[in-house]
Amino acid sequence: MVSISLCMIVRNEEKVLGRCLACVQGFADEIIIVDTGSTDRTKEIAFSFTDKVYDFKWKDDFAAARNFAFSKGTGDYLFWLDADDVVRQEERRKLMDLKRRLDDERPDVVMLKYAVGYDGDGAPSFFFYRERLLRRCGKAVWKGRIHEAVEPFGKVVREDIMIEHRKVGTGDPDRNLRIFEQMLREKGKLSPRDQYYYGKELYYHRRYRDAASVFSEYLELPDGWREDRVDACRHGAYCMYRIGDRDRGLKFLLSGLSEGIPKPELCCDLGWWFFSAGRYRDAIFWYGQAVQAGKLTGEDGFVMPECRGYIPYLQMCVCYDRLGEWKMAERYNELAERCRPGTETCQLNRKYFEKRKEQQIEWIQ
Hints:
With 365 residues, the protein is an alpha/beta fold.
């Protein structure tokens, strides 16, 4: 069986590090912990799991820290996690099965799902694929001071295994923006990928005009991953809504259509634009497209599973209700309920439609 080195960078993670490391015991043959300046019990906790704990002076460069951690790994494959990541029991079983198969399949890069958003019940509602296991070689190199990544190489496979990012606390909310602005002072410009993520950080900091400007500049560049470009269109629209410019918001969304078959998330955004304008039949069209697009576009980029069924069906229910077409409204509520059985919203809608039927009977009598 292949050997796997878990390589992590940490700082002040005493609340979550033990939880994370306990999740992968038995999967990781070697645990490498690189501490970038903790002042709490993080290193003490790390030493309770491994004796391979190293110090690395933080210099606002995530790739440098991760590459240092990778340099210490000796396994056939290098595996990374953040300290606030969690692997649930069923996913652990899948990981162990993957480990047994790696001997025969020998991929260079294994992409796993990474959940970073959750619904009201705590179930993953937003995920994307990330390079998670990499064959130890000269190509397994992190790039990017912020939002760092390893460019996939060789034989790349995807596995239906979910790693969940379960953050505790806020950390330093200004760190990423601070690093980007330092990069701008040093270089005068950013790479296309960094430009995209810089726009996202400005958006998170509610600097909506600045963010929209950065997204617009990014979309004018010839390079850039299609999924990032679509997401930039969506977030550009959100910026416009925040400053009260719905028309420019629509222009951002429509520019996303130039990237190819629209993803369900973009279709839902277009549906919402028309819905909020009271144009319910136009909204129904786009929500219907969201359902169809989910069958065509796969799971590249950022995925919100509820945009592939539950949300568009529920919104179509509301649209038909506003149009006075209650049988159609009831039908789409039931379709939404099939996507997420037992939701309070669908149950309340059922009561609403039952009450409406009773009122209609009383009116007839």
